[in-house]
Specification:
Structural class: alpha/beta
Shape: globular
Number of strands: 8
CATH topology: TIM Barrel
Strand order of the largest sheet: 3-5-6-7-8
CATH architecture: Alpha-Beta Barrel
Distance between the termini: 6 Å
Number of helices: 11
Length: 322
């Protein structure tokens, strides 16, 4: 069982901060570190479209220029943090065997690009234009995946928190269906010969769990369990086994700056391990730690808390040795 982290930290972006984080993750023994996301996971993937004039920003919201959307295929992928993390590893001889690439998925990106009046909520976003997701955003994200694999990242995770909203307990909203979600994710990940997973934070419906388990191109399902204990109720080890999936559990809070006790973390991981019948890997916090940025007066104090939370996860996984 390996340890990992979803991606973000409560520090601003700089090469020095990327260096610091990578060295700290090495020192505490994280097995599968991500490139540190020090900007919004939305901005990282939409900034190239903004730079090229395919989208524009107004009052803090992104809007699409439909007459420019065909140019999305021309965008050359680049993530400064991802390249900086590789350079830090070389510079400081950090011999990580695995590297995790957090990749914002097309559904979540679509939910943050507006096409209509904001008062219409998700119906005002590109989520209401399904053809654009498969024709434009899915190939766009696929190009980032190929770029990250070329850099050396060998554990890929789509971050799709919006799926927890789209797929409810009883129905799927916005005109989507199970087949469309499966086909879109398979299109993005098929043929990529590294480990592949998906991260959905918040409450997960039983319906969403079963849909994600059916996706052939996914190996690992990453959900939060510390702040959302209800997710324990939807995990079915038979579904994991039938579809050859592993569960990557979040076992400390990504929202609360209080540091969890070792015994509490251990009991939660043991419970998840029993429920999943041992199909556990890549143990992490519930989500990224960017949400802790304003929890304390000093961002460095928030960062130290995030590192201590991860250090405790490593300690518990090593103690259990399962």
């Amino acid at each position: 069982m390996r340890t990992s982290h979803v991606g973000s930290f409560p520090l601003s972006y700089s090469r020095e901060n990327v260096d610091r984080i990578m060295k700290d993750l090495w020192s505490i023994g994280i097995d599968v570190p991500p490139y540190p996301q020090l900007r919004s996971f939305i901005d990282i993937y939409l900034q190239p479209l903004l730079n090229e004039g395919i989208i524009y920003s107004k009052n803090g919201f992104y809007y699409i220029k439909f007459n420019q959307i065909d140019r999305i295929h021309e965008i050359k992928p680049k993530i400064s943090e991802a390249e900086d993390a590789i350079n830090a590893m070389i510079k400081y001889n950090l011999l990580f065997k695995w590297l995790r690439a957090p990749i914002t998925g097309p559904f979540t990106l679509a939910s943050r690009i507006y096409v209509d009046d904001l008062s219409k909520s998700l119906y005002a976003t590109l989520l209401s234009k399904k053809d654009f997701i498969m024709d434009a955003l899915a190939p766009y994200i696929r190009s980032f995946i190929e770029y990250l694999v070329d850099l050396g990242y060998n554990v890929l995770f789509l971050d799709e928190p919006i799926l927890g909203v789209i797929v409810g307990k009883k129905r799927i909203i916005l005109g989507y269906n199970e087949e469309y979600i499966i086909d879109t994710i398979n299109y993005i990940l098929k043929g990529i010969s590294v480990e592949k997973g998906i991260h959905v934070c918040g409450r997960i419906s039983d319906k969403l769990f079963k849909i994600l388990a059916k996706i052939d191109s996914l190996d690992i399902l990453n959900f939060e369990f510390y702040d959302t204990r209800e997710n324990l109720e939807i995990i079915d080890h038979k579904v994991l086994e039938k579809n050859d999936k592993l569960l990557a559990p979040g076992i400390v809070s990504a929202k609360n700056p209080s540091i969890e006790g070792l015994d509490e973390i251990k009991k939660l991981l043991e419970k998840i391990y029993r429920i999943a019948n041992g199909r556990i890997d890549l143990v992490s916090g519930d989500c990224g730690f960017a949400g802790l940025r304003n929890a304390l007066d000093n961002p460095l104090d928030s960062y130290r808390i995030s590192i201590e939370k991860l250090r405790r996860i490593v300690a518990i996984v090593q103690e259990l040795a399962i």
